[in-house]
Write a structure and sequence with these properties.
This protein is an alpha+beta fold. It is built from three helices and seven strands. The strands form two sheets. The chain has a four-stranded antiparallel sheet with strand order 4-3-6-7.
């Protein structure tokens, strides 16, 4: 049997109840770490639970992040991490924000002192990808406002 046949059989097993239970992914937090005149950084905190009796290797995470409706980050992070059977593990994804989009958000951030976010992505396993999504708000502290305005360079 060729490689394509083996992959087909494994994919079929992934869709049979009782053979592979889909891992559970929850978004714990999306936090704005820093913003300056040259760059911005956020941190996405996920929690992944493996309900299976065997380890599941994580191959990567794809993501897109919008702030106040404007896409400010998207990307792919390659990982080589395995989740032990029956365990829950945290996964932190550092994200570099697109500066030009951040600059356009400054007036609203200064006025509202918060940012609405929409995060969507997928955790990639060898045969399947598991989607995740979360929406919410991030408070912007006075320190971050000074960084955005260029006073804390």
């Amino acid at each position: 049997m060729g490689l394509i046949g083996c992959l087909g059989m494994l994919s079929a097993c992934a869709s049979v109840p009782g053979v592979l239970e889909q891992p559970k992914i929850s978004v714990q937090d999306v936090s704005l770490q820093s913003v300056s005149l040259t760059q911005g950084h956020a941190l996405i905190a996920l929690q992944i639970t493996n309900p299976n009796a065997f380890p599941l290797p994580i191959r990567g995470v794809g993501y897109g992040l919008s702030l106040n409706g404007a896409q400010v980050a998207h990307g792919q992070q390659t990982l080589t991490q395995s989740i032990a059977p029956g365990t829950t593990v945290p996964l932190a994804i550092p994200v570099q924000l697109q500066l030009m989009e951040i600059v356009q958000l400054i007036p609203r951030m200064l006025g509202d002192r918060k940012v609405q976010y929409d995060l969507a992505g997928e955790v990639q396993l060898p045969l399947i990808s598991i989607p995740f999504q979360k929406q919410g708000g991030i408070g912007v502290t006075p320190w971050v406002l000074k960084q955005i305005a260029g006073f804390g360079k």
